[in-house]
Amino acid sequence: MSEALETSQVLSEVLEDLRRHLLWQEEDGGRFLQMDARLAAEARAMRLPRPPAAVRPVPSAPASPAPVVERPAPARVPPPAPVAAPLVLPNVSAQARPSTGPLPGGERPTLDEIRRELGDCRRCKLCTGRKNIVFGSGNPRAELVFVGEGPGESEDLQGVPFVGAAGQLLTKMIEAMGYRRDDIYICNVVKCRPPSNRNPEPDEVSACEPFLRAQLKAIQPKAIVALGKFAAQTLLRDSTPITRLRGTWREYEGIQLMPTFHPAYLLRQPAEKRKAWEDLQQVMKFFGKPTGQRG
Q: Which residue ranges does the record annotate as region Disordered (predicted)?
């Protein structure tokens, strides 16, 4: 009886060693059961019969985990490049009225974005007879912007606003104010030449006006000089004749606006140059420039 107990005790010790070995394998991250040579030799030397079920201890070690297949980490994919949001031009519905608040509608665009949005414009019938779109020229951060009516023949050929006879007069007016053309920005209500320099028609103004308003939003000048009735009436939404609009400060979206005569009109009516100069002197005073006589 003592021999049986001794045998059972030895067997229990072997099984306990085996259980600890299994636990060690699990804690050490082992993937398979590995019995060391010493335990295997002892078990063979003893040649012990299997103990009865009543006295045979049952190890409580958990089953070995399934082998884990190591997979390479997925390659990092760079995030997609941000897609530029479409340019939203200011609302210019017929019922809209100028306000004294900030310019409307989303973030401030750039002139390059507006020009790309304009593209090879086919939004009105003026596209059929033009040679070049005349977008605008000058300082994109100008404090002063001149807005005219539309391109003439010389402008259509060169793609630059106010380069013909009326443009030469405008250049003299700008220089008399103490500026260079590169200091200010010049653009027109419509960007394509009306046939035979006729007045732009309402549908043509309506098609182009959002781009003019977007240009002014991009530049955010301190003052605008509206040259002639189309520029003044379009920006102010006021059908008052230019002879009554001129010479009095108005506001466009919180920006000071001075209506005055168009240089082409001054070429036909030289006597009106004095009134136009008086209007420009008010703009000079606004910017703190001396208002001496023209050279």
A: 53-73
